[in-house]
Sequence to fold (365 residues):
Amino acid sequence: MKFRAEREALADAVATAQRAVASRTGALPVLSGLRVTLGAGSVELVGSDLELTIRVTTPAQGDGEGSVVLPARLFADILARLDADTVSVELVGEDARIEAGRFATTLRTLSASDFPRLPEVPTNGVRVEASALAEALRQVVPAASKDDARPILTGVLLAAQGDGLRLVATDSYRLAMRDLPGVSMLAADQKVLVGAKGLAEVQRLLGDGEIEVFLAEREVTFRVGSADVTTRLIEGDFPNYQQLIPAGYPNKLAVGRDALSAAVNRVRLVGQSRDTAPIRLHMTADGVELSAIAQDVGEAHESVEGSFDGGELVVAFNAPFLLDGIESVGGSDITLETIDPLKPAVMRNVGSPDFLYLLMPVRIA
Fold:
């Protein structure tokens, strides 16, 4: 097996597929590699950790057909540092010889027969507008948990909602919910739980135009250009998120998003070395005063102009979670609606009712 490809295109394809390679391979060392398969006029690269699989195809001129597994990180590092326009890869026995310009190296390979058998992508896909989905994923995915001990919360709920799609994620401290009216990829009343890690890779690849979504019984595949991102569906029941969202809020703060974000970033500096230094928001008719107090470090205060409708109160939030919400809602003006210092608050974009960010407050003395 031997092929020749444009270096930049091959390097991009390898870097994309490598993002699914297992960081800890355990009993399957072959998962530390990329499966490279030569076909007619193209080469396919596959990385997988068994939960997430990324396939990328890129043009190549080759002799013969076959598959081999190359060490993913080393292969990607080599391609990224080459300055030649083209690269050739030739399988010689159990080694792969890589040449580009005056550079040459030989890498030990792993057997493609040891690479796990991957699920086939269904033939019946649904086309979805890419930019709307990308924005929804940008807003929702960060709210999913990264704690594998709670696998249900590491997923994003995709649910058919009226004539559209709803995406929901929570780590139990905050919740993000986005509606996409007119976007349909599920049957009526259908819902699936998709791993946030895979959806983050989908969002990274999305651009303009359309993508195809292929839903199977145990996994879902997103086809973005020449890349297929396949992630296993998570089994189990997602929390009843709707009961977490209060029906109404007596207190409503309206403020400029950029001004609030900048103030939070400045005020939080005194507590950055302390996980327990929340940001206090003192809301009055004049707007909001932010403060942070860290024992043995100091304190900081800053006022931000805005309008407040309700009873004067002080509520505190985890600074990174608060900033994630401010970033997620987008737009120039946002609202923060609260009930009291102990109940969930909701952040929204004034001009876009389709997104909601719910944030649990931090109890303060």
